[in-house]
Amino acid sequence: MSKRNNAVSTARRAASLLLAAGLLSWAPFAEAATLDRVKESGVFRIGYRADAKPYSYRNERGEASGFIVDLCREVATAVRAETGGNTRVEYVLVPAVQRFESVRDGKVDILCDPSTVTIPRREIVDFSLPTFLDGASVLYRLSKPIRRFEDLAGKRVGVLAGTTTEQVLRNSLRDLGLRASIVEVKDHRNGIDILSGDKIDAYFADRAIIVALLNEGGRPGFQLSKMYFSYETYALALPRDDGAFRLLVDRTLARLYRTGRINAILAKTFGPTPPDEMLKAMILINSLPDQ
Residue 206 — pLDDT band, cuts 50, 70, 90? Predict the structure, then answer.
């Protein structure tokens, strides 16, 4: 082998070793990126929604509220224990259509809203253990009943833009060969408002969110379909490839499920009515041991 080839070979081996060393030195930092940043800045940023009641919303005092926000407060307590007791929690409003990008781009450390786990979304963010099970339903005026997908044919149907609920609606109408006019809305209150104003014939959304808005009162003449048009698994959205932070979040949720403390958090939002059998099964399955 010539001296030139020897030199090239040596250079290549050196480059490979440097690359490997760089990857090894970077890997632990990548896995602990969120906790390291929180420890350095002293701030843990919780992303939440303005209008996704009862899961994630801004209450009348302008505060972050809801069942999933309460779960994230438990996570914040665990983060403080890991990074130091002086860590401050900052609540950041995120729009529905940009919520996953807010996690990806580092605007928030964790997304605390009714986010359905899907494969395409996992290209943008990671997800925690499941937090809730819900599904889409349809709200309509009593004068124009809608009890199944076929009843949506020829109707104006409102839906929150950029959600899995919108995808379910569009795909189901397509698969059934039904034609309907889909009206995208900016938030759930807007959807019910335009239903009240007869600008749409039905509003398609997560069932628990519709129930929460109806429970506020002042909206007579509506009926919520008893049918679930989809079943969806919610989880907390986290930065991708951050194993240390994801483990902390999952450990927190598993402990809540395993000890039964989750029942008090559920009751705070949904009242004393026990969770249905599907939700009980989700909690049981995810009550992972911590030893």
Answer: confident
